[in-house]
């Protein structure tokens, strides 16, 4: 298939672009490089350097070629920042998604796979299914929920088939490909930066959550498993006009557990500072990925925290400055 990928110079989009190329698909990456990296765009992909808010560039890109489907990764991703600057997130994550849907319909593209998030759910003691109560605790999650809701109307009105993949915490690395956000707010790369001597200590935000060790619990899903979920969802869009799936491993790890495993993998002490809770964080987000496993035969293959951290550590030690050479 011929696939248009928004945000394909980013962490998850570029890993998925590479997996699509390896599976024999043609890929065009459309990315403003606001947080992504030109060097992350895989060899063999066509690259368009443009912003989704540029209506002219977007219309030209989507009509320049006959695309079979869109994979929409482009967004701002920092939940904490969304609580300080909500407008930035509503504009990029919702308004620009709407622009993409609108232009896709005009270009006659009928399939879209959307990067949604576990942040659409309320915190829950038990693993989250797709029927668990919705209730974003931050603006970031809300912008993703709004986009899912708009996609549903575009399905009903224009017949746009869509899959909303609600990722839990993306993690891990592939050869030559890993997490390189600036600034980095995600736990795993943050603690590995400390082990590399690039930062002094990790901050644990909240040690009084109702969890066994008092720190937040998250489900971590390797980027290779996220990429395989996209490829399966893309194939299924031929038959199904609407899919919403949780993409997680089904296991939860607390902040303290991740840090402890990072100490074992890196051999570094990784000092921590304990700080109050951050607005917008919820105590526990762990997936039940049973639905996509049963319906599409997807299976997460990198669920061990030691293995996840080892793959990320390999990326960080071989690419201490991410995609930059300095
Ligand atoms: N990283 C996670 O743990 C996680 C979890 C759940 C959902 N997601 C979602 O997955 C997607 C990808 O996340 P990521 O971690 O790869 O983030 P990322 O920041 O590495 O990638 C996002 C990419 O989108 C591009 N982009 C952003 N706004 C754009 C715009 N207006 N026009 C063109 N390009 C634009 C950026 O330059 C970047 O290359 C996002 O939609 C995110 O919300 C990520």
Short description:
With 326 residues, the protein is α/β, with parallel strands linked by helices. It is 37% helix and 19% strand. Helix 1 packs across helix 7 (223-236), helix 6 (187-195) packs parallel to helix 8 (255-266) and helix 6 packs across helix 10 (305-318).
Please describe what this structure looks like.
With 326 residues, the protein is α/β, with parallel strands linked by helices. The chain folds into 2 domains: 2-171 and 221-247, Rossmann fold, CATH 3.40.50; 187-218 and 250-318, UDP-galactose 4-epimerase, domain 1 (Alpha-Beta Complex), CATH 3.90.25.10. It is 37% helix and 19% strand. The protein has helices at residues 11-22, 55-63, 79-82, 86-106, 139-158, 187-195, 223-236, 255-266, 290-296, 305-318; strands at 2-6, 26-31, 46-49, 69-72, 111-117, 161-167, 169-171, 202-205, 217-222, 242-247, 252-254, 272-275, 284-285. The strands form 3 sheets. A 7-stranded parallel β-sheet has the order 3-2-1-4-5-6-10, sandwiched between helices. Strands 7, 9, 11 and 13 form a 4-stranded mixed β-sheet that branches. The chain is globular and about 55 Å long. The model has no long low-confidence stretch (mean pLDDT 96). The structure holds nicotinamide-adenine-dinucleotide (NAD). Residues 6-7, 9-13, 31-36, 51-53, 73-75, 77, 92, 96, 115, 117, 167, 169-170, 181 line the site of nicotinamide-adenine-dinucleotide (NAD). Nicotinamide-adenine-dinucleotide binds at residues 6-7, 9-13, 31-36, 51-53, 73-75, 77, 92, 96, 115, 117, 167, 169-170, 181.
